[in-house]
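> example.struct
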């Protein structure tokens, strides 16, 4: 009886919940987000319709049908086949996008590689190494990138010897030549059975991966370190080499040959490409080096001392202990640097490299018009690439984050 009375009292003591649409936590956030999305959508539609009406009033055509029209100009650097007068503005957009991605990818790889090395060298106990690295970082990261691009293009590559005095930088093999018109390289021509060598290389890489995984598992279980570097190099060279020899060495080279006033054959990289790649790599390697240095310094000094106390060499301490713990602090600023590398490649317009801005948004726009569409497509391209880089590196960043207990 007393228990029933207690339950009745508790039920009467509870306040009656009243549903308030604008204050209820369950629907408030969703409602306001829908309202915000509707406002943004209306503003976007208003800007679109207003722009379309203004263009129509001025007699300017709109739409994306121009992408199927033939483009009457060529470019000195392209990664796909294209013929002026036959290729379309859609092809021009693809060529510019591929050129931008190609130079950005190479610059990201080179700048990241040297950025890590410079970041570690900056903390070296050797006074000369540390100070020289400091000078490099402070000089190149504080000079505007545009000035560096123009310097390498006008002050270095345009002053190289002329075609008749081409420099052979391949030690007499004439496979890599350099002059003021660019870099000329021999291009490999693969035979019918070269796929066997490619398969052998894939098998060798898988074998090395499995061997490395087994060695790490053994080290985790017993603490025993198994040297696999020499064996890995042997597998990666011997197995594809045997396949290459047994199939009759199905590989030849298309050599650059001087005919008339220029070289023909092989692969040519124009001076604008070389200047842009060098400037982007140097500038962003200096930026990444500072991120690496800050990340290493964020690791407690006790981690270094403990690793040295158990007998690890300084190089192994840095590779196995310090760098893995520093990665959570290194990755976020490195995301920004990779995104900036892609976006800063648009400065190629200053030296005429055929990126998407110079080729599509400038030359193509001057001939075809459609400024709104072309500028919008270019903006969407850079936004998509930047968001993709951010998404991929954020996935990696979550994997390297330290798990707190």
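> example.seq
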């Amino acid at each position: 009886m007393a228990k029933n009375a207690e339950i009745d009292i508790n039920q009467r003591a509870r306040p009656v919940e009243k549903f308030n649409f604008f204050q209820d936590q369950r629907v408030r956030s969703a409602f306001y987000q829908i309202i915000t999305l509707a406002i943004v959508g209306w503003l976007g539609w208003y800007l679109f319709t207003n722009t379309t009406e203004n263009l129509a009033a001025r007699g300017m055509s709109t739409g994306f049908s121009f992408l199927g029209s033939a483009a009457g100009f060529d470019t000195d650097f392209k990664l796909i086949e294209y013929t002026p007068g036959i290729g379309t503005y859609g092809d021009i957009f693809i060529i510019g996008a591929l050129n931008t991605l190609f130079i950005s990818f190479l610059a990201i790889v080179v700048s990241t590689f040297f950025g890590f090395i410079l970041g570690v060298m900056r903390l070296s106990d050797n006074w000369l190494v540390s100070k020289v690295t400091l000078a490099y970082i402070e000089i190149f990261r504080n000079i505007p990138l545009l000035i560096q691009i123009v310097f390498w293009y006008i002050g270095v590559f345009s002053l190289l010897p002329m075609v008749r005095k081409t420099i052979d930088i391949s030690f007499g093999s004439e496979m890599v030549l350099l002059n003021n018109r660019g870099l000329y390289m021999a291009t490999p021509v693969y035979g019918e059975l070269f796929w066997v060598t490619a398969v052998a290389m894939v098998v060798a890489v898988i074998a090395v991966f499995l061997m490395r995984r087994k060695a790490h598992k053994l080290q985790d279980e017993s603490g025993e370190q198994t040297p696999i570097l020499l064996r890995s190099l042997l597998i990666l060279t011997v197995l594809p080499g045997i396949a290459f020899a047994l199939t009759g060495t199905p590989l030849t080279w298309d050599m650059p040959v001087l005919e008339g006033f220029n070289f023909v054959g092989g692969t040519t990289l124009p001076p604008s490409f070389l200047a842009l790649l060098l400037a982007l790599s140097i500038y962003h390697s200096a930026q990444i080096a500072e991120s690496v240095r800050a990340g290493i310094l964020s690791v407690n000094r006790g981690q270094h001392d403990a690793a040295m106390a158990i007998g690890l060499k300084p190089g192994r301490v840095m590779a196995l202990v310090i760098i893995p713990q520093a990665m959570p602090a290194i990755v976020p600023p490195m995301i920004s640097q990779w995104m900036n590398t892609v976006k800063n490649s648009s400065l190629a317009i200053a030296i005429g490299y055929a990126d998407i801005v110079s080729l599509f948004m400038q030359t193509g726009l001057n001939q075809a018009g459609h400024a709104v569409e072309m500028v919008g497509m270019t903006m969407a391209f850079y936004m998509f690439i930047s968001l993709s880089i951010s998404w991929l590196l954020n996935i990696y960043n979550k994997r390297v984050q330290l798990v707190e207990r």
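> remarks
DSSP finds twelve helices and eight strands in the chain.
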